[in-house]
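Bit of a strange request maybe. I'm writing a small parser for C-alpha coordinate strings and I need a real example to test against, not something I typed by hand. Could someone generate the C-alpha coordinates for this chain?
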Amino acid sequence: MPMHILRTSKYLQVFIIIISALTSCSGQQTNTNKIAERDTTITPATAYSKLFLDSLKLEAFIKQESATGNAASTIRDFYRNRNYQFAWFTETGIAEHTKSFWSLHNNYINDFGDTALKNKHLHKEISAFMQSDSTVAFTPVLLLQKELQLTKHFFEYSKNAYSGKMDPSILKWYIPRKRINEVALLDSFLSHAGKQLQDWEPLNIYYQRLKKELVHYHEIEKAGGWKEIDADKLKKYKQGDTAVAIKEIKLRLQTSNDYVINDTTVFYTSDFIVAVKLKQRSFGMKEDGIISYAFIKELNVPVKERIRQILINLERMRWVPQQQEPNIILVNIPEYRLHVFEAGKKIFSIDIVVGKEANGTVIFSDQLKFVVFSPYWNIPASIVQKEILPAIKRNSNYLSKMNMERTENGFRQKPGGKNSLGKVKFIFPNSYNIYFHDTPSKSLFNQDKRAFSHGCIRLAEPQKLAAYLLRFQPEWTTKAITDAMNSSKENWVTLKKEVPVFVSYFTTWVDEEGLLNFRDDVYGHDKKLAKGLFE
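Reply from user aminoacidic:
Good idea to test on real output. This should exercise your parser:
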Protein backbone atom coordinates (compact mmCIF):
# COMPACT_ATOMS: atom_id res chain seq x y z
CA MET A 1 0.00 0.00 0.00
CA PRO A 2 1.40 3.45 -0.91
CA MET A 3 2.78 5.47 1.98
CA HIS A 4 0.24 8.28 1.55
CA ILE A 5 -2.67 5.83 2.12
CA LEU A 6 -3.50 4.26 5.50
CA ARG A 7 -6.28 2.19 7.00
CA THR A 8 -8.54 3.98 9.46
CA SER A 9 -7.77 1.37 12.14
CA LYS A 10 -4.15 2.54 12.05
CA TYR A 11 -5.04 6.17 11.69
CA LEU A 12 -4.31 7.06 15.31
CA GLN A 13 -0.58 6.40 14.83
CA VAL A 14 -0.14 9.23 12.37
CA PHE A 15 -3.05 11.63 12.89
CA ILE A 16 -3.48 12.49 16.62
CA ILE A 17 -2.55 16.10 17.19
CA ILE A 18 -0.56 16.95 20.31
CA ILE A 19 -2.62 19.15 22.61
CA SER A 20 0.19 21.64 23.11
CA ALA A 21 0.27 22.23 19.38
CA LEU A 22 -3.42 23.07 19.47
CA THR A 23 -2.83 25.73 22.10
CA SER A 24 -0.40 27.57 19.85
CA CYS A 25 -3.09 27.79 17.16
CA SER A 26 -5.85 29.31 19.24
CA GLY A 27 -4.87 32.79 18.17
CA GLN A 28 -6.11 32.06 14.65
CA GLN A 29 -9.73 32.76 15.64
CA THR A 30 -11.02 35.76 13.69
CA ASN A 31 -14.65 35.66 14.76
CA THR A 32 -15.67 38.95 16.32
CA ASN A 33 -18.63 37.38 18.16
CA LYS A 34 -18.28 35.92 21.63
CA ILE A 35 -15.85 33.01 21.36
CA ALA A 36 -16.92 29.72 22.90
CA GLU A 37 -14.98 28.51 25.91
CA ARG A 38 -12.49 25.80 25.07
CA ASP A 39 -12.97 22.65 27.14
CA THR A 40 -9.38 21.63 27.90
CA THR A 41 -10.57 18.73 30.08
CA ILE A 42 -11.11 16.80 26.85
CA THR A 43 -7.86 15.02 26.02
CA PRO A 44 -6.93 11.83 24.14
CA ALA A 45 -7.10 10.06 27.50
CA THR A 46 -10.67 11.20 28.32
CA ALA A 47 -12.25 11.51 24.86
CA TYR A 48 -14.47 8.90 23.21
CA SER A 49 -12.43 9.50 20.05
CA LYS A 50 -8.67 9.79 20.14
CA LEU A 51 -8.72 11.82 16.92
CA PHE A 52 -8.14 15.56 17.21
CA LEU A 53 -7.77 18.25 14.58
CA ASP A 54 -5.54 21.28 14.25
CA SER A 55 -7.31 24.63 14.55
CA LEU A 56 -5.29 25.91 11.60
CA LYS A 57 -6.78 23.15 9.46
CA LEU A 58 -10.22 24.15 10.71
CA GLU A 59 -9.62 27.76 9.63
CA ALA A 60 -8.40 26.56 6.24
CA PHE A 61 -11.63 24.57 5.82
CA ILE A 62 -13.79 27.57 6.78
CA LYS A 63 -11.96 29.69 4.20
CA GLN A 64 -12.24 26.96 1.57
CA GLU A 65 -16.02 26.67 2.13
CA SER A 66 -16.42 30.48 2.08
CA ALA A 67 -18.19 30.25 5.43
CA THR A 68 -18.68 33.64 7.05
CA GLY A 69 -20.55 35.20 9.96
CA ASN A 70 -22.73 32.86 11.95
CA ALA A 71 -21.92 29.82 9.79
CA ALA A 72 -18.20 30.18 10.52
CA SER A 73 -18.59 30.96 14.22
CA THR A 74 -20.93 28.00 14.70
CA ILE A 75 -18.31 25.56 13.39
CA ARG A 76 -15.57 27.21 15.44
CA ASP A 77 -17.66 27.18 18.62
CA PHE A 78 -18.53 23.53 18.23
CA TYR A 79 -14.91 22.39 17.98
CA ARG A 80 -13.64 24.75 20.66
CA ASN A 81 -16.29 23.35 23.01
CA ARG A 82 -14.86 19.88 22.49
CA ASN A 83 -11.17 20.92 22.42
CA TYR A 84 -11.02 20.05 18.70
CA GLN A 85 -11.90 16.39 19.22
CA PHE A 86 -13.40 14.64 16.18
CA ALA A 87 -17.19 14.22 16.34
CA TRP A 88 -18.00 11.74 13.57
CA PHE A 89 -15.05 9.35 13.49
CA THR A 90 -13.01 7.37 15.99
CA GLU A 91 -9.64 5.73 15.54
CA THR A 92 -11.42 2.49 14.53
CA GLY A 93 -13.69 4.03 11.92
CA ILE A 94 -17.04 5.71 11.67
CA ALA A 95 -18.94 6.33 14.93
CA GLU A 96 -22.36 4.73 15.49
CA HIS A 97 -24.09 8.08 15.96
CA THR A 98 -22.76 9.13 12.54
CA LYS A 99 -24.75 6.29 10.99
CA SER A 100 -27.83 7.41 12.93
CA PHE A 101 -27.47 10.97 11.68
CA TRP A 102 -26.99 9.83 8.10
CA SER A 103 -30.12 7.69 8.30
CA LEU A 104 -32.09 10.55 9.87
CA HIS A 105 -30.79 12.94 7.25
CA ASN A 106 -31.60 10.62 4.31
CA ASN A 107 -35.10 10.00 5.65
CA TYR A 108 -35.64 13.76 5.83
CA ILE A 109 -34.55 14.23 2.19
CA ASN A 110 -36.79 11.36 1.06
CA ASP A 111 -39.79 12.53 3.09
CA PHE A 112 -39.54 16.24 2.31
CA GLY A 113 -37.85 16.20 -1.09
CA ASP A 114 -35.35 18.77 0.15
CA THR A 115 -32.78 18.36 -2.63
CA ALA A 116 -30.95 21.49 -1.45
CA LEU A 117 -29.42 19.32 1.28
CA LYS A 118 -28.18 16.65 -1.11
CA ASN A 119 -24.48 17.25 -1.71
CA LYS A 120 -23.94 14.59 -4.37
CA HIS A 121 -20.18 14.27 -3.84
CA LEU A 122 -20.45 14.09 -0.05
CA HIS A 123 -23.37 11.65 -0.25
CA LYS A 124 -21.47 9.34 -2.53
CA GLU A 125 -18.38 9.22 -0.31
CA ILE A 126 -20.19 8.97 3.04
CA SER A 127 -22.66 6.38 1.76
CA ALA A 128 -19.78 4.26 0.45
CA PHE A 129 -18.00 4.59 3.80
CA MET A 130 -21.21 3.62 5.66
CA GLN A 131 -21.55 0.42 3.69
CA SER A 132 -17.99 -0.77 4.31
CA ASP A 133 -15.92 -1.59 7.37
CA SER A 134 -12.94 -0.05 9.12
CA THR A 135 -10.54 -1.41 6.52
CA VAL A 136 -11.61 1.24 4.00
CA ALA A 137 -8.60 3.25 2.87
CA PHE A 138 -8.67 6.96 3.76
CA THR A 139 -5.93 9.53 3.73
CA PRO A 140 -5.59 11.79 6.81
CA VAL A 141 -6.52 14.75 4.60
CA LEU A 142 -9.67 13.05 3.30
CA LEU A 143 -10.78 11.92 6.74
CA LEU A 144 -10.36 15.44 8.13
CA GLN A 145 -12.31 16.82 5.19
CA LYS A 146 -15.21 14.39 5.75
CA GLU A 147 -15.26 15.18 9.48
CA LEU A 148 -15.61 18.91 8.86
CA GLN A 149 -18.04 18.49 5.97
CA LEU A 150 -20.31 16.35 8.14
CA THR A 151 -20.32 18.99 10.87
CA LYS A 152 -21.13 21.75 8.39
CA HIS A 153 -23.80 19.51 6.86
CA PHE A 154 -25.39 18.82 10.26
CA PHE A 155 -25.80 22.56 10.87
CA GLU A 156 -27.38 23.02 7.43
CA TYR A 157 -29.68 20.05 8.08
CA SER A 158 -30.74 21.29 11.53
CA LYS A 159 -31.61 24.71 10.12
CA ASN A 160 -33.88 23.29 7.42
CA ALA A 161 -35.33 20.39 9.42
CA TYR A 162 -35.89 22.16 12.76
CA SER A 163 -35.91 25.93 12.23
CA GLY A 164 -37.65 25.99 8.85
CA LYS A 165 -36.50 27.03 5.40
CA MET A 166 -38.39 30.33 5.30
CA ASP A 167 -38.62 33.47 7.42
CA PRO A 168 -42.12 33.44 9.02
CA SER A 169 -42.34 37.23 9.17
CA ILE A 170 -42.31 37.39 5.36
CA LEU A 171 -45.60 35.51 5.49
CA LYS A 172 -46.99 37.74 8.29
CA TRP A 173 -46.52 35.11 10.98
CA TYR A 174 -45.66 37.04 14.14
CA ILE A 175 -45.67 34.31 16.80
CA PRO A 176 -42.25 34.51 18.52
CA ARG A 177 -40.10 31.40 18.39
CA LYS A 178 -36.94 30.44 20.20
CA ARG A 179 -33.94 30.26 17.91
CA ILE A 180 -32.28 26.85 17.81
CA ASN A 181 -28.71 26.76 19.09
CA GLU A 182 -27.08 24.53 16.49
CA VAL A 183 -23.96 23.88 18.57
CA ALA A 184 -25.98 22.80 21.62
CA LEU A 185 -28.17 20.70 19.33
CA LEU A 186 -25.20 18.82 17.91
CA ASP A 187 -23.72 18.35 21.37
CA SER A 188 -27.07 16.94 22.48
CA PHE A 189 -27.17 14.62 19.48
CA LEU A 190 -23.73 13.25 20.32
CA SER A 191 -24.69 12.77 23.97
CA HIS A 192 -27.68 10.69 22.83
CA ALA A 193 -25.23 8.51 20.89
CA GLY A 194 -27.67 8.51 17.97
CA LYS A 195 -30.36 6.70 20.00
CA GLN A 196 -33.96 7.60 20.97
CA LEU A 197 -33.92 10.38 18.39
CA GLN A 198 -37.67 10.96 18.77
CA ASP A 199 -36.86 12.39 22.21
CA TRP A 200 -33.90 14.36 20.90
CA GLU A 201 -35.40 16.20 17.92
CA PRO A 202 -36.39 19.77 18.94
CA LEU A 203 -39.90 19.48 17.50
CA ASN A 204 -43.35 19.89 19.01
CA ILE A 205 -45.88 17.08 19.28
CA TYR A 206 -48.00 18.50 16.44
CA TYR A 207 -45.07 18.21 14.05
CA GLN A 208 -44.30 14.66 15.12
CA ARG A 209 -47.91 13.57 14.59
CA LEU A 210 -48.16 15.15 11.15
CA LYS A 211 -44.81 13.78 10.00
CA LYS A 212 -46.13 10.24 10.54
CA GLU A 213 -48.99 11.07 8.19
CA LEU A 214 -46.51 12.38 5.62
CA VAL A 215 -44.83 8.97 5.58
CA HIS A 216 -48.25 7.31 5.28
CA TYR A 217 -49.28 9.52 2.34
CA HIS A 218 -45.96 8.90 0.58
CA GLU A 219 -46.75 5.18 0.79
CA ILE A 220 -50.19 5.81 -0.71
CA GLU A 221 -48.58 7.79 -3.53
CA LYS A 222 -46.05 5.04 -4.25
CA ALA A 223 -48.92 2.53 -4.43
CA GLY A 224 -50.63 4.61 -7.10
CA GLY A 225 -52.79 6.96 -5.05
CA TRP A 226 -56.57 6.92 -5.34
CA LYS A 227 -58.93 7.11 -8.29
CA GLU A 228 -61.13 10.12 -8.91
CA ILE A 229 -64.78 9.62 -8.01
CA ASP A 230 -67.46 10.65 -10.49
CA ALA A 231 -69.48 13.36 -8.78
CA ASP A 232 -72.89 14.78 -9.63
CA LYS A 233 -73.34 18.29 -8.23
CA LEU A 234 -77.04 17.71 -7.63
CA LYS A 235 -76.80 14.18 -6.22
CA LYS A 236 -76.56 13.31 -2.53
CA TYR A 237 -76.30 9.91 -0.85
CA LYS A 238 -77.53 8.84 2.58
CA GLN A 239 -77.78 5.61 4.55
CA GLY A 240 -79.91 3.05 2.70
CA ASP A 241 -79.08 4.37 -0.78
CA THR A 242 -77.52 2.27 -3.55
CA ALA A 243 -75.13 3.72 -6.13
CA VAL A 244 -71.88 2.99 -7.98
CA ALA A 245 -70.48 6.20 -6.46
CA ILE A 246 -70.87 4.69 -2.98
CA LYS A 247 -68.62 1.79 -4.00
CA GLU A 248 -66.05 4.27 -5.38
CA ILE A 249 -66.12 6.25 -2.13
CA LYS A 250 -65.59 3.08 -0.11
CA LEU A 251 -62.54 2.21 -2.22
CA ARG A 252 -61.22 5.76 -1.82
CA LEU A 253 -61.57 5.66 1.98
CA GLN A 254 -59.99 2.21 2.12
CA THR A 255 -56.98 3.54 0.19
CA SER A 256 -56.33 6.19 2.85
CA ASN A 257 -57.13 3.72 5.66
CA ASP A 258 -60.27 5.65 6.64
CA TYR A 259 -62.57 2.65 6.07
CA VAL A 260 -61.05 -0.63 7.24
CA ILE A 261 -64.05 -2.93 6.74
CA ASN A 262 -63.79 -5.40 3.83
CA ASP A 263 -66.77 -3.96 1.99
CA THR A 264 -66.83 -2.74 -1.60
CA THR A 265 -70.56 -3.04 -2.28
CA VAL A 266 -72.79 -0.34 -3.73
CA PHE A 267 -74.91 -0.22 -0.55
CA TYR A 268 -74.74 2.64 1.97
CA THR A 269 -74.65 0.60 5.18
CA SER A 270 -74.77 1.48 8.89
CA ASP A 271 -71.06 0.61 9.16
CA PHE A 272 -70.18 2.94 6.30
CA ILE A 273 -71.94 5.96 7.80
CA VAL A 274 -69.50 5.87 10.75
CA ALA A 275 -66.55 6.24 8.35
CA VAL A 276 -68.32 8.99 6.38
CA LYS A 277 -69.07 11.05 9.50
CA LEU A 278 -65.47 10.74 10.69
CA LYS A 279 -64.20 11.88 7.31
CA GLN A 280 -66.66 14.79 7.34
CA ARG A 281 -65.18 15.81 10.68
CA SER A 282 -61.68 15.66 9.22
CA PHE A 283 -62.80 18.11 6.48
CA GLY A 284 -64.55 20.42 8.95
CA MET A 285 -67.99 19.58 7.55
CA LYS A 286 -71.29 18.96 9.28
CA GLU A 287 -71.25 15.36 10.54
CA ASP A 288 -74.61 14.28 9.16
CA GLY A 289 -73.50 11.26 7.13
CA ILE A 290 -74.95 12.73 3.94
CA ILE A 291 -72.51 12.42 1.05
CA SER A 292 -72.58 15.67 -0.93
CA TYR A 293 -70.74 17.02 -3.94
CA ALA A 294 -68.56 19.11 -1.61
CA PHE A 295 -67.57 15.97 0.32
CA ILE A 296 -66.66 14.07 -2.85
CA LYS A 297 -64.73 17.11 -4.10
CA GLU A 298 -62.52 16.94 -0.99
CA LEU A 299 -62.01 13.20 -1.47
CA ASN A 300 -60.92 13.83 -5.07
CA VAL A 301 -58.01 16.11 -4.10
CA PRO A 302 -55.00 14.13 -5.47
CA VAL A 303 -52.65 12.53 -2.95
CA LYS A 304 -49.79 14.59 -4.41
CA GLU A 305 -51.61 17.82 -3.46
CA ARG A 306 -52.33 16.51 0.03
CA ILE A 307 -48.62 15.72 0.45
CA ARG A 308 -47.75 19.30 -0.53
CA GLN A 309 -50.32 20.57 1.96
CA ILE A 310 -48.77 18.42 4.69
CA LEU A 311 -45.27 19.67 3.79
CA ILE A 312 -46.42 23.30 3.93
CA ASN A 313 -47.91 22.85 7.39
CA LEU A 314 -44.89 20.93 8.67
CA GLU A 315 -42.85 23.98 7.72
CA ARG A 316 -45.21 26.13 9.82
CA MET A 317 -44.99 23.70 12.70
CA ARG A 318 -41.21 24.16 12.76
CA TRP A 319 -41.95 27.78 13.68
CA VAL A 320 -43.96 26.73 16.74
CA PRO A 321 -42.04 26.45 20.04
CA GLN A 322 -41.11 22.90 21.03
CA GLN A 323 -42.83 23.30 24.39
CA GLN A 324 -46.10 25.20 24.50
CA GLU A 325 -47.40 26.97 27.56
CA PRO A 326 -49.48 24.42 29.55
CA ASN A 327 -52.43 26.83 29.80
CA ILE A 328 -53.20 28.56 26.51
CA ILE A 329 -55.97 29.67 24.18
CA LEU A 330 -55.22 28.52 20.63
CA VAL A 331 -57.09 29.89 17.62
CA ASN A 332 -56.74 28.10 14.28
CA ILE A 333 -58.10 30.39 11.57
CA PRO A 334 -58.76 27.81 8.78
CA GLU A 335 -60.51 25.56 11.32
CA TYR A 336 -62.77 28.38 12.55
CA ARG A 337 -62.25 27.11 16.10
CA LEU A 338 -60.83 28.35 19.39
CA HIS A 339 -59.36 25.73 21.75
CA VAL A 340 -58.70 26.13 25.47
CA PHE A 341 -55.86 24.06 26.93
CA GLU A 342 -55.25 23.52 30.61
CA ALA A 343 -52.22 21.59 31.89
CA GLY A 344 -51.48 20.68 28.27
CA LYS A 345 -54.91 19.07 27.66
CA LYS A 346 -57.76 20.51 25.63
CA ILE A 347 -60.74 21.10 27.89
CA PHE A 348 -63.17 22.72 25.46
CA SER A 349 -63.49 24.37 22.05
CA ILE A 350 -65.63 27.20 20.68
CA ASP A 351 -66.72 27.94 17.10
CA ILE A 352 -65.51 31.29 15.81
CA VAL A 353 -65.94 33.73 12.93
CA VAL A 354 -62.67 35.17 11.57
CA GLY A 355 -61.77 38.03 9.25
CA LYS A 356 -62.84 37.74 5.65
CA GLU A 357 -60.04 37.42 3.11
CA ALA A 358 -59.77 41.17 2.46
CA ASN A 359 -59.53 41.79 6.24
CA GLY A 360 -57.55 38.68 7.19
CA THR A 361 -57.01 38.05 10.89
CA VAL A 362 -53.31 38.48 11.76
CA ILE A 363 -51.23 35.51 13.00
CA PHE A 364 -49.58 36.42 16.31
CA SER A 365 -49.53 35.75 20.06
CA ASP A 366 -50.08 37.83 23.18
CA GLN A 367 -51.46 37.72 26.74
CA LEU A 368 -55.20 37.90 27.46
CA LYS A 369 -55.56 40.41 30.32
CA PHE A 370 -59.07 41.89 30.37
CA VAL A 371 -62.71 40.88 30.09
CA VAL A 372 -64.96 43.79 29.13
CA PHE A 373 -68.67 43.37 29.79
CA SER A 374 -71.28 45.41 27.88
CA PRO A 375 -68.55 47.09 25.82
CA TYR A 376 -68.61 50.20 23.69
CA TRP A 377 -67.54 49.64 20.11
CA ASN A 378 -65.09 52.33 19.05
CA ILE A 379 -65.62 52.12 15.32
CA PRO A 380 -62.35 51.98 13.28
CA ALA A 381 -61.78 54.88 10.91
CA SER A 382 -61.74 52.55 7.88
CA ILE A 383 -65.25 51.25 8.72
CA VAL A 384 -66.45 54.81 9.38
CA GLN A 385 -65.32 55.88 5.91
CA LYS A 386 -66.56 52.82 4.03
CA GLU A 387 -69.80 52.06 5.91
CA ILE A 388 -70.94 54.55 8.56
CA LEU A 389 -70.65 57.86 6.69
CA PRO A 390 -72.37 56.52 3.53
CA ALA A 391 -75.14 55.10 5.75
CA ILE A 392 -75.62 58.49 7.45
CA LYS A 393 -75.95 60.14 4.04
CA ARG A 394 -78.68 57.68 3.11
CA ASN A 395 -80.49 57.98 6.45
CA SER A 396 -80.04 60.93 8.82
CA ASN A 397 -81.44 58.81 11.69
CA TYR A 398 -78.90 56.04 11.16
CA LEU A 399 -76.85 56.77 14.31
CA SER A 400 -79.91 56.74 16.56
CA LYS A 401 -81.27 53.61 14.88
CA MET A 402 -77.99 51.73 15.43
CA ASN A 403 -77.50 53.06 19.01
CA MET A 404 -74.37 54.95 17.90
CA GLU A 405 -72.98 58.33 18.86
CA ARG A 406 -70.38 60.78 17.65
CA THR A 407 -67.44 61.49 20.01
CA GLU A 408 -64.39 63.74 19.95
CA ASN A 409 -62.40 60.86 18.52
CA GLY A 410 -64.92 59.62 15.97
CA PHE A 411 -67.90 57.30 16.31
CA ARG A 412 -68.82 54.59 18.78
CA GLN A 413 -71.69 52.20 19.39
CA LYS A 414 -73.16 52.13 22.89
CA PRO A 415 -73.65 48.94 24.94
CA GLY A 416 -76.82 47.02 24.16
CA GLY A 417 -78.41 44.36 22.00
CA LYS A 418 -77.43 46.02 18.69
CA ASN A 419 -73.75 46.42 19.60
CA SER A 420 -71.57 44.74 16.98
CA LEU A 421 -69.29 43.41 19.74
CA GLY A 422 -72.22 41.76 21.48
CA LYS A 423 -72.29 41.62 25.26
CA VAL A 424 -68.63 40.96 26.08
CA LYS A 425 -65.16 41.26 24.60
CA PHE A 426 -61.77 39.84 25.60
CA ILE A 427 -58.66 41.99 25.33
CA PHE A 428 -55.11 40.77 24.74
CA PRO A 429 -53.44 44.13 23.98
CA ASN A 430 -51.64 44.10 20.62
CA SER A 431 -50.64 46.43 17.82
CA TYR A 432 -53.08 44.78 15.38
CA ASN A 433 -56.23 45.77 17.34
CA ILE A 434 -57.41 42.14 17.31
CA TYR A 435 -59.57 40.78 20.13
CA PHE A 436 -62.31 38.21 20.86
CA HIS A 437 -65.90 39.33 21.16
CA ASP A 438 -69.53 38.28 21.22
CA THR A 439 -71.78 39.04 18.24
CA PRO A 440 -75.50 39.58 17.64
CA SER A 441 -75.15 37.74 14.29
CA LYS A 442 -75.46 34.21 15.69
CA SER A 443 -76.71 32.67 12.42
CA LEU A 444 -73.21 32.82 10.91
CA PHE A 445 -72.10 29.99 13.20
CA ASN A 446 -74.40 27.59 11.34
CA GLN A 447 -72.08 27.72 8.33
CA ASP A 448 -69.05 25.45 7.83
CA LYS A 449 -66.87 28.29 6.51
CA ARG A 450 -66.95 31.42 8.62
CA ALA A 451 -64.71 34.21 7.31
CA PHE A 452 -67.01 37.23 7.65
CA SER A 453 -65.56 39.70 10.18
CA HIS A 454 -63.48 42.86 9.76
CA GLY A 455 -60.50 41.09 11.34
CA CYS A 456 -61.46 40.46 14.98
CA ILE A 457 -62.60 37.04 16.19
CA ARG A 458 -66.26 36.48 17.05
CA LEU A 459 -67.20 33.76 19.55
CA ALA A 460 -70.19 31.44 19.47
CA GLU A 461 -70.07 30.91 23.26
CA PRO A 462 -68.56 34.03 24.84
CA GLN A 463 -70.17 33.50 28.25
CA LYS A 464 -68.52 30.08 28.50
CA LEU A 465 -65.10 31.63 27.91
CA ALA A 466 -65.81 34.46 30.39
CA ALA A 467 -66.78 31.98 33.11
CA TYR A 468 -63.60 29.98 32.49
CA LEU A 469 -61.28 32.99 32.60
CA LEU A 470 -62.89 34.33 35.80
CA ARG A 471 -62.95 30.97 37.62
CA PHE A 472 -60.27 32.18 40.07
CA GLN A 473 -62.28 35.28 40.96
CA PRO A 474 -65.17 33.99 43.14
CA GLU A 475 -67.16 37.21 42.99
CA TRP A 476 -67.83 36.45 39.32
CA THR A 477 -70.63 33.95 39.70
CA THR A 478 -72.82 32.83 36.80
CA LYS A 479 -75.43 35.43 37.83
CA ALA A 480 -72.83 38.19 38.12
CA ILE A 481 -71.52 37.44 34.64
CA THR A 482 -75.04 37.33 33.16
CA ASP A 483 -75.96 40.64 34.81
CA ALA A 484 -72.76 42.32 33.61
CA MET A 485 -73.36 41.10 30.05
CA ASN A 486 -76.83 42.64 30.03
CA SER A 487 -75.93 45.97 31.61
CA SER A 488 -76.09 49.36 29.93
CA LYS A 489 -72.75 50.27 31.55
CA GLU A 490 -69.35 49.12 30.32
CA ASN A 491 -67.35 47.15 32.91
CA TRP A 492 -63.64 46.27 32.59
CA VAL A 493 -62.38 43.29 34.64
CA THR A 494 -58.67 42.55 35.02
CA LEU A 495 -57.80 38.85 35.15
CA LYS A 496 -55.82 37.63 38.15
CA LYS A 497 -54.01 35.20 35.85
CA GLU A 498 -53.16 36.27 32.32
CA VAL A 499 -53.58 33.60 29.64
CA PRO A 500 -51.37 33.28 26.53
CA VAL A 501 -53.27 33.52 23.25
CA PHE A 502 -51.94 32.06 20.00
CA VAL A 503 -53.70 33.01 16.76
CA SER A 504 -52.40 30.45 14.26
CA TYR A 505 -52.94 29.20 10.71
CA PHE A 506 -52.84 25.47 9.95
CA THR A 507 -54.69 23.87 7.05
CA THR A 508 -53.75 20.33 8.03
CA TRP A 509 -52.92 18.77 11.40
CA VAL A 510 -53.46 15.64 13.49
CA ASP A 511 -55.71 16.23 16.47
CA GLU A 512 -55.47 14.70 19.95
CA GLU A 513 -57.68 11.79 18.82
CA GLY A 514 -55.26 10.93 16.01
CA LEU A 515 -57.52 12.23 13.22
CA LEU A 516 -55.80 13.85 10.22
CA ASN A 517 -57.61 17.11 9.39
CA PHE A 518 -57.64 19.15 6.19
CA ARG A 519 -59.06 22.66 5.70
CA ASP A 520 -59.24 25.23 2.90
CA ASP A 521 -56.52 27.83 2.51
CA VAL A 522 -58.89 30.66 3.42
CA TYR A 523 -56.29 33.48 3.19
CA GLY A 524 -54.06 32.01 0.46
CA HIS A 525 -51.14 31.62 2.89
CA ASP A 526 -50.45 28.08 1.67
CA LYS A 527 -49.99 29.33 -1.88
CA LYS A 528 -47.48 31.95 -0.75
CA LEU A 529 -45.54 29.43 1.31
CA ALA A 530 -45.58 26.89 -1.53
CA LYS A 531 -43.76 29.36 -3.77
CA GLY A 532 -40.88 29.51 -1.31
CA LEU A 533 -40.78 25.76 -0.69
CA PHE A 534 -41.40 24.24 -4.12
CA GLU A 535 -40.60 26.83 -6.78
